[in-house]
Amino acid sequence: MYKLLPFLFGFVLLTSSCDLEKNIQVNLPEYESEIVVESYIEPGQPLRALLTESLSYTELPSPSPLDENTLVTLTDNGQTFSIPLSQLLQQVEGDTAAMNEVNGFIGVIELLGLAKGATVVVKHNGMDYTLEEGIYFDLSSGKIYNYGHPYIVPADYGGIFSIEINASNERNVFASATLLEAVPIDSTVYNFNESDTLAAVLTWFTDNTGTDNYYRFTINKIGESDLSFEVNDRFFDGDDVVFGTAFDYVVGDTLISKLYHIEESYHDFLETFEEAAQANGNPFAQPASILSNVEGGLGIFATISHDEKLVVIE
Fold this sequence. Notes:
This protein is α+β, with helices and mostly antiparallel strands. It folds into two domains: about 35-180, no CATH class; about 185-290 and about 305-310, Immunoglobulin-like, CATH 2.60.40.10. It contains four helices and 17 strands. The strands form three sheets. Strands 1, 2, 3, 4, 5, 6, 7, 8, 9 and 16 form a ten-stranded mixed β-sheet that branches. A hairpin with a 6-residue loop joins strand 10 and strand 11. The longest helix is centred in the N-terminal third of the chain and has 16 residues, at about 95-110. The chain is globular, with a radius of gyration of 25 Å. It starts with a helix and ends with a strand.
């Protein structure tokens, strides 16, 4: 051991005196921006689409401030109305929660690289609906869009909807989806932990037998973010199914349980989107690609139908 020490000491001195830094230049290929689509077809709701421009990994977004005279279309529980942004800000002044929500909407819109000047057409049952460019806030879902049309989506279960987009630089985008009928929730119940005052919520439904089904389940306490996940019926085809929460709720809490019946493409998009979000910035995570159903671009065009039940912990 003592004989090795002089050698090791000399080796450390030698390596510490070397310049171990080296600049490496990586020539990245020129990045071509793509159209990113987020659009949902839901019975009883107007047509909406969010079109943005994708950025390279090293590119930073360029915020674009909103003019206070911009006309904003608000949708809340099926009701739609349009007012100037300045008037909206006046209406929520003094209401901290509402002001934070509106400022959040504005901040996101200003930060996104919105795709402007595109022609966006939704087709259904032989009819074409051209969406108008603007600013649309959906207060019920918390979504933001920049193209819309007042046409209310009918409950045409089994019907096919498609979207066609012609954007700048000769970029053409296409996607289609089939509207699935909602699977009803049989019951939503709660029970208390025997050793505590906290309650868990259980939601029961019956899976459609003989077909491949995909679901998204959400439950949220009023005023808080959703607990959500997506599943397929590979292991419970045709069975009675229960989705439950942890013992997280107390007497007086009001919750909304929602069961969405979705297509496989939307299920895969949600799963891979979450995987990519978890992998982003994590050097130990496997790279993840988001599965898109949009041809000529990125993103998702999906139909969603759901059943919901409200439960009050008493």
